[in-house]
UniProtKB/TrEMBL annotation:
<keyword id="KW-0238">DNA-binding</keyword>
<feature type="domain" description="OmpR/PhoB-type">
    <location>
        <begin position="124"/>
        <end position="224"/>
    </location>
</feature>
<keyword id="KW-0902">Two-component regulatory system</keyword>
<dbReference type="Pfam" id="PF00072">
    <property type="entry name" value="Response_reg"/>
</dbReference>
<dbReference type="GO" id="GO:0032993">
    <property type="term" value="C:protein-DNA complex"/>
</dbReference>
<feature type="DNA-binding region" description="OmpR/PhoB-type">
    <location>
        <begin position="124"/>
        <end position="224"/>
    </location>
</feature>
<dbReference type="Pfam" id="PF00486">
    <property type="entry name" value="Trans_reg_C"/>
</dbReference>
<dbReference type="InterPro" id="IPR001789">
    <property type="entry name" value="Sig_transdc_resp-reg_receiver"/>
</dbReference>
<dbReference type="GO" id="GO:0006355">
    <property type="term" value="P:regulation of DNA-templated transcription"/>
</dbReference>
<protein>
    <submittedName>
        <fullName>Response regulator transcription factor</fullName>
    </submittedName>
</protein>
<dbReference type="InterPro" id="IPR011006">
    <property type="entry name" value="CheY-like_superfamily"/>
</dbReference>
<feature type="domain" description="Response regulatory">
    <location>
        <begin position="2"/>
        <end position="116"/>
    </location>
</feature>
<keyword id="KW-0597">Phosphoprotein</keyword>
<feature type="modified residue" description="4-aspartylphosphate">
    <location>
        <position position="51"/>
    </location>
</feature>
<dbReference type="InterPro" id="IPR039420">
    <property type="entry name" value="WalR-like"/>
</dbReference>
<dbReference type="GO" id="GO:0000976">
    <property type="term" value="F:transcription cis-regulatory region binding"/>
</dbReference>
<keyword id="KW-0805">Transcription regulation</keyword>
Length: 225
């Protein structure tokens, strides 16, 4: 899962980022309004953790910008400005949740997991496609009833496609989602090809019914024939 943390407090930003990365999220940072705006224009995120009071603008205005761009991104407002008016306005503008500062990191993790579960089919704790099941809370992969060990990046790639069955995903989009912003600027995608090759091998050896198919010149599709 890829997260954008919009927070002007440098210490809090670093502490929160380290904590999220330990939970295996891909985290990008924005210390101010303009940096955040450029990032949401250029990249897509599964969730934005958004401070309201920024040195050069309001986080609520960023919600307006997201809406204008037509981006359906989950947003959790993180703000010390704990007034009912701001909370209601943020939710009205499309935020999914509101967590006042100071917050406990454990509660933030719980809110994120709850939010992502709501986005899954009927709030289930697992994602299933073909004979593959993933339990995101445990980072567990089961193929045909048997647990399979994958590397972190293999797991991240598989989870990304499991959440988008049958959808064509181009290489740069996959790279950004799994490795983070600016990875699309690398000279080649050999690192993706290597991970895809290893993942395909695991899927085939364990009898997975979905197949990760290459679409020449574009990217990949995860389909059951």
């Amino acid at each position: 899962m890829k997260i954008l943390l919009v927070e002007d407090d440098a210490d809090l930003r670093e502490i929160t980022t380290r904590s999220l990365e330990k939970e295996r999220y891909v985290v990008s940072q924005a210390p101010d309004y303009m940096t955040a705006l450029r990032k949401i224009e250029d990249y897509d995120y599964d969730c934005i953790l958004l401070d309201i009071m920024l040195p050069d603008g309001s986080g609520l205005d960023l919600l307006d910008e997201l809406h204008a761009m037509g981006k359906r991104t989950n947003v959790i407002i993180l703000s010390a400005k704990d007034s009912l008016e701001d909370k209601v306005k943020g939710l009205d503008l499309g935020a999914d949740d509101y967590l006042p500062k100071p917050y406990h990191l454990a509660e933030l993790h719980a809110r994120l997991k709850s939010l992502f579960r709501r986005n899954m089919r009927e709030g289930e704790r697992k994602v299933q496609y073909g004979n593959i099941e993933i339990m995101p809370d445990q980072f567990k992969v089961i193929i045909g009833g048997k647990e399979v060990e994958l590397s972190r990046k293999e797991y991240d790639i598989l989870f990304y496609f499991m959440a988008r069955p049958g959808r064509l995903v181009n290489k740069s989009t996959l790279a950004e989602a799994v490795w983070g912003d600016h990875i699309d600027q690398v000279d080649n995608f050999d690192f993706i090809y290597a991970q895809i090759k290893n993942l395909r091998k695991h899927l085939k050896e364990n009898g997975a019914t979905p197949e990760l198919k290459a679409v020449y010149g574009i990217g990949y599709k995860f389909v059951v024939e």
